[in-house]
Amino acid sequence: MTERAPVLSVRGLSVRFLMPGGRRVAAVTDAHFEVRAGECLALIGESGCGKSVLASALLGLLPGNAQTAGSALLGDLDLLTADERTLARTVRGRLAGLVPQSPAAHLTPVRTIRSQLQETVAALTPTRGRAALRSAAEAAAERAAFPVDHLDRHPHELSGGLAQRAATALALVGDAPLLLADEPTTGLDRDLVDRTVDELRRHVDAGGEGRALLMITHDLAAAERIADRVAVMYAGRIVELADAAAFFGTPGPRHPYSRGLLQALPDRAFTPIPGLPPELGALPDGCAFAPRCDRANDACAVLPPLSGTVACHHPHAALTEAADRA
Amino acid sequence: MLDLRAITAGYTRNAPVFRDVSLTVAPGEAVGLLGPSGCGKSTLARVAALLHRPESGTLVLDGEPVRRWRHRAPRAQRTAFGVVFQQPRLSADPRLRLTDLIAEPLRATGRREGSADRVAELAATVGLTADLLGRRPHEVSDGQLQRACLARALVLRPRWLVCDEMTAMLDASTTAALVRVVEDYRAATGAGLLAVGHDRTLLDRWCDRTVDWTALTGTALAAEAAR
């Protein structure tokens, strides 16, 4: 792929939660990555590794006890230092659309999908007038493949798949250059997963040069289906950043953790990674994965930096130079 | 033998979710039940686990017809089942520490003696540390809570396990870990399994045979209507 301008550029992003009693939880530590125009980056990892906190940080939705460091540039705007007014008026919905984890909880239960779409259209676009709003809302529904004859239903009258599409339609209304999808496929069956992620991918492709997708997921099959690049997160750090084709195909992932994740899939070895992820409040000094790693030795007492594509002292070999450059 | 014969079940009168569904699970057998969301497969699993009374049809459990469901079912039949649901948050009492959550079935059936040892043994099996056992559900991740829910399902040493989308919320590694725990338990005890899910790859890998929901109902209409 040719180098394109990054839509989102995250540099040294860290998030700390200050807990009662002076405890600090390191939810995200020193994350560096870019999402380029026309690209889908999948951020994968086990639950509780800090993926969703990262998404919340990008939208300014962290709770009050969070401290952030680093920068996250969306165009010229640093999302981490922007004030609430800027975030509310120019970022959410307009520059960054959120496809939420649980559409059932995201949609307003007491209003129809049509009413919620029209409200969003009125808030985010210059469309005015009842008839114009109505047709704009229907167009928005169609873009997310939401059936127009279901628009007058309330969220509880929709199946999980349709609720997901309604939430996606809302996220697409503002035509934002960056789409943030936080576990968009949790609890959906395989057909719906495929359809949901295909729609997200289509949205990126339809936007030509301008749009990018950051998909946060623990569903490796969904990531494989649409991602151009993969970022693997473990214990709050990005431990591998690789080209999706190389990651899921040959030569495969280089970090032992990524490799373990793939080997846990039922169509591969179906063997779990031994042990549990560490507590983010009590991370070890060295490599956080070392206690679960079969390659660990004394060198792992020192934190490995993300050099090239992988943060590990004993990565699996990259067979080609191309994989190194990815 | 877990034998469901011509079961019709639903939640409103005259509008059953499915009609005339039959399914048999032999002792020690692992059967996967595959279907899209909303097709009624979870309802069938609930009938099989004595959690939902069907409108018609018979359930024969180890040669004995089941006449009562839910709390009315005789204890010997109720405790023959261990059930794991899709969403651990909705199936865990938020007030209980994980250790009490796992021990709850022992207390409910008056088997407090030796419960501490049994909980410790199961915690090791499912991979929960002592630190985690002292926490309440809001202090642990979905994967950790589901590990506790699986331990709770195994604590009475059931002859039958019903896993309704047990791994749908979980990442690949936790999924593989929990399936291994279930399979180790079945290898040791010869328990039968009904695993409900929508992931064919997973069920094919996990179970002795996978049954397609449409093959049970003979029609795809129910699945289509749910979309």
From TrEMBL, chain A:
Catalytic activity of the protein: Ni(2+)(out) + ATP + H2O = Ni(2+)(in) + ADP + phosphate + H(+)
Membrane-protein topology: Peripheral membrane protein
Enzyme Commission number, as recorded: 7.2.2.11
Sorted UniProt keywords: ATP-binding, Cell membrane, Ion transport, Membrane, Nickel, Nickel transport, Nucleotide-binding, Translocase, Transport
PANTHER family registered for this protein in UniProt: NICKEL ABC TRANSPORTER, ATP-BINDING PROTEIN, OLIGOPEPTIDE TRANSPORT ATP-BINDING PROTEIN APPD
Name by which UniProt lists this protein: Nickel import system ATP-binding protein NikD
InterPro entries on file: AAA+_ATPase, ABC_Ni/Peptide_Import, ABC_transporter-like_ATP-bd, Oligopep_ABC_C, P-loop_NTPase
Any GO BP: peptide transport
Family: Belongs to the ABC transporter superfamily.
GO cellular component: plasma membrane
Pfam families per the UniProt record, alphabetical: ABC_tran (PF00005), oligo_HPY (PF08352)
Gene3D superfamilies on file: P-loop containing nucleotide triphosphate hydrolases
SMART domains (UniProt xref): AAA
Boundaries of every ABC transporter domain copy: 10-260
GO molecular function, one term: ATP hydrolysis activity
Compartment(s) where it occurs, according to its Swiss-Prot or TrEMBL record: Cell membrane
Assembly and oligomerization: The complex is composed of two ATP-binding proteins (NikD and NikE), two transmembrane proteins (NikB and NikC) and a solute-binding protein (NikA).
From TrEMBL, chain B:
Entry-linked Pfam families: ABC_tran
Record keywords, A-Z: ATP-binding, Nucleotide-binding, Transport
Domain ABC transporter: 2-226
Gene Ontology BP annotations: transmembrane transport
Molecular function as annotated in GO: ATP binding; ATP hydrolysis activity
PROSITE patterns in alphabetical order: ABC_TRANSPORTER_2
Regions annotated as coiled coil: none
Similarity annotation: Belongs to the ABC transporter superfamily.
Name this polypeptide is given: ATP-binding cassette domain-containing protein
Organism field: Streptomyces griseicoloratus
